[in-house]
Amino acid sequence: MTAPRKIGTAYQEALKALAEQVARAYREDCRSFQVSAGLIQGNTMIAITVVFDGTGTECWVPMDMGTEPWSDDRRSRIEHDARVVINERMKLESFTAEFVLARMQEVLDAYR
Questions:
Q1: CATH code of the domain covering residue 77
Q2: Which single residue of 4, 43, 71, 111 has CA 20 to 30 Å from 101?
C-alpha cells in the first residue's frame, strides 16, 4: 500500500490528515463533534483536535507554528477552517455510506 500523495501546503495537509482521521471515526461514532486548536510542545506547535460528542473519540494532528504569531483570531480561523473541511468530509462519508447501502441492497435483492 502506498502512502497518500501530498498535494498541498503543510497547513492543507494537516487539515486533510485530520479529515481522514475524522472520516474513520465517523464510521464508528456519530456526527456531532467539537473542534479546538491550541499550542503544544512548549508553545512551538499547534494541535488541532476533534472530539466526538457521543463517544469521546478524539482525533488530532500537530501543525508547525509557522511565522504568524498565536492569537485568538488565528485559533478561531484554524478551528473554522477545520470545521469546514470536516463537515465537507462528513457529507462525503454520508453520501458514500448511502450509496454503498443502496448497492448492497440491490445485490441482496438480486439474490432473493
A1: 3.30.720
A2: 4
